[in-house]
Design goal:
Largest sheet: 6 strands, mixed
Radius of gyration: 48 Å
Number of strands: 25
Helix content: 25-40%
Strand order of the largest sheet: 19-5-4-20-23-24
Number of helices: 13
Shape: elongated
Length: about 650
């Protein structure tokens, strides 16, 4: 019974166990996990290795970019050479060294295309980690890069010292402006600059160049002249120059001689006289020395001219007569006396009396429209009305004087200013220091320089003299008008070469840095006289504005120079009551120069300064932006500096 019961119990218990075993799914999960483990490992491994490949490829791209960029920077003048190639390779190697990230087969190949872009291809083989379990031992990576020199919109204003010392060699020896001279080297350096920066121009960007050659003056001209810059409305019609006027107060008369009146005079009367003495008597030289003829009276009152003659052959007088005794006590001498009386009639004309050295105002309106002005330059002739005449008025009034017609060379006297010790800030009435000046009054307008009108005098007060010793400054070479400045323009290389190689791009005059800086700043300013041309580029993008200021010497004003500020000895516009000769002028002009540099910089204009064969003075350092002052001790250094500045101005943009 018991056994049946036990069997029955097993039968009863066995059936649910099988059912449960059949229905239990726990074993399926283990098999599923086991089956999914292999693809899961592949996915994880692929993710790990792909992440590594992305990182390595990013570093490979950076190295390629660095190599292409460095290679393009060394392409002075757009030439790809061994230096450029090795520089590119070095930069790539430094950024992606051998064995980096376990890579192998590393290669970088830079090339240059016809547009002077540096193109690079970089390759590396990256070993796999997890994926090696699945047969993937490595991954080959490849990237490309391009370095392209571009200028979005850039304005370059060259302010160039062309003073007399630029004719010398950099070491100060005489070169006569020839090969090796500073002026010849400067011309080469400007073309070098263009070679570096000019290659970066694109059809969608604007790259412009302007020039202000300066010394003691600056040449601008009017728009009525060839390549003139200033609109005639901004130039005065008349101006007062330190000159001289002619006093024409001496009347002219017509002389009318009367008929001769002859009388015979006898000398002797018993007094002994020799034949020699008798001959002297006939010439009015005995018994005392007298002139022959003799003039009495003063014009315009009647004057009489009395002449004497003793001619024994004439029959009118014998010259020596009397008893023929040896003592000669009864001898006498006769002569003929001839009187001619001249009367004078006023012609209504007047001769020159003397000069009045003083400021003299003349009409120069024809200058600004391309015409000429005549002034008296030699004999003064006569005029119909007595009075004081300017040289221009005398040229018109005198029909017999010597006159010369002058056309305007384009140099100017600047507008009114204020004498100030520091110009910090610049006074609003110092119009000649206002970069954005647009003239509305004659105080603000510019004045044509007229060196032939300029005459010196000993002091400030007017001087009256018949002397011609106070020569015009032009005759003493105290006036210099350099080559005409040029506004900002898009220029080809040949146009740049033609500008700097022209015969009038020459070394002349004294050093006035403020003369160059004010006009260079005016020509590049986006908000001044030329705002319509300078404010925006055709593509509407911002403009990077740069002044390249080059000089070979310190400020060197001279109070006898006639230039932008007139004749400083007499006009004293800069000095006012602070006048103290040339040494004081140097300090005042230096202060003006630095103030102008600061004003230009405030307009977001970058200033680069190059000192050529001269020390970098505190004023030049203060003028330059930080890190933008250069010293060139020789010709090679100047050219290197200009190329370096051009390379820094250009923006390097990576593409592809």
């Amino acid at each position: 019974m018991h056994n049946r019961v036990e069997s029955s119990n097993r039968a009863i218990c066995t059936t649910p166990f099988l059912r449960r075993l059949r229905e239990d799914k726990a074993g399926n999960t283990i098999m599923l996990v086991a089956g999914a483990l292999i693809p899961l490992m592949a996915m994880v491994g692929a993710g790990v290795d792909m992440s590594r490949s992305y990182l390595v490829k990013s570093r490979l791209q950076q190295a390629c970019d660095a190599g292409a960029l460095a290679g393009r920077k060394t392409m002075a003048g757009g030439t790809w050479d061994t230096t450029s190639s090795s520089t590119a390779q070095n930069y790539f190697n430094n950024n992606f060294p051998t064995g980096a990230f376990g890579t192998s087969n590393i290669a970088f190949t830079p090339t240059v295309d016809s547009d002077l872009n540096v193109n690079g291809t970089a390759n590396a083989r990256l070993p796999m980690t997890v994926m090696t379990l699945f047969g993937n031992q490595y991954m080959d990576l490849s990237v490309t890069c391009r370095s392209k020199m571009e200028v979005a919109n850039t304005d370059i204003m060259f302010i160039l010292d062309v003073t007399g010392s630029m004719a010398d060699c950099p070491d100060g020896s005489s070169c006569g402006s020839g090969t090796g001279s500073k002026i010849a080297t400067l011309k080469q350096a400007v073309v070098d600059f263009y070679d570096v920066l000019g290659d970066a121009s694109t059809t969608t960007s604007q790259l412009r160049y302007g020039f202000v050659p300066y010394s003691s003056g600056v040449n601008l001209g009017s728009t009525s002249q060839t390549n003139g810059i200033l609109p005639p409305a901004y130039i005065v019609n008349s101006w007062s120059y330190q000159s001289r006027d002619a006093n024409m107060n001496t009347p002219e008369y017509t002389a009318t001689p009367g008929s001769p009146v002859n009388t015979v005079e006898t000398y002797g009367g018993g007094t002994g006289i020799s034949s020699t003495q008798c001959s002297d008597y006939g010439r009015n030289r005995y018994p005392s020395v007298g002139s022959n003829p003799v003039t009495s009276g003063t014009a315009p009152s009647p004057t009489t001219s009395t002449s004497y003659s003793n001619n024994a052959t004439s029959g009118n007088d014998w010259g020596w007569s009397g008893a023929a005794d040896t003592s000669g006590t009864t001898k006498s001498c006769r002569r003929t006396k001839t009187d001619v009386t001249t009367t004078y009639t006023a012609t209504g004309r007047y001769f020159f009396t003397n000069w009045v050295y003083q400021q003299s105002s003349i009409d120069v309106s024809s200058f600004k429209t391309g015409g000429s002005v005549s002034i008296a330059t030699g004999t003064t002739g006569t005029v119909t009305s007595n009075g004081t005449y300017t040289l221009a008025a005398l040229a018109t009034a005198s029909t017999s004087g010597t006159n010369t017609s002058y056309t305007w060379d384009g140099c100017i006297e600047d507008s009114d200013t204020e004498s100030d010790a520091t110009f910090s800030p610049i006074p609003s009435t110092a119009y000649d220091l206002q970069i954005d000046l647009v003239p509305a009054t004659d105080d603000e307008r510019w004045r044509p320089a007229f060196p032939a009108m300029i005459w010196e005098r000993p002091g400030l007060a007017s001087q009256t003299s018949t002397s011609n010793n106070w020569q015009p400054t032009g005759a003493n070479s105290y006036y210099a008008c350099p080559k005409r400045a040029q506004k900002l323009e898009v220029m080809t290389k040949s146009e740049v070469q033609n500008y700097v190689n022209a015969t009038d791009f020459r070394a002349i005059g004294g050093t006035y840095h403020d003369v160059g800086m004010i006009w260079g700043s005016r020509l590049i300013s986006p908000t001044g006289l030329f705002a319509s041309e300078n404010a925006a580029a055709p593509n509407g993008k911002p403009i990077d504005r740069n002044i390249i200021f080059m000089t070979d010497g310190d400020m060197a004003p001279n109070d006898r120079i006639y230039g932008l500020h007139g004749m400083e000895k007499l006009d004293r516009r800069v000095t006012g009551s602070m006048y103290g000769g040339s040494p004081n002028l140097e300090t005042l002009h230096n202060n003006r120069f630095v103030a102008l540099c600061n004003a230009a910089r405030a307009k977001n204009i970058k200033i680069w300064v190059v000192a050529f064969g001269t020390a970098t003075t505190p004023e030049l350092t203060a003028c330059a932006d930080p890190g933008r002052i250069f010293f060139a001790g020789d010709a090679a250094s100047l050219r290197t500096n200009f190329r370096a500045i051009a390379a820094r101005i250009a923006s390097l943009r990576l593409s592809q």
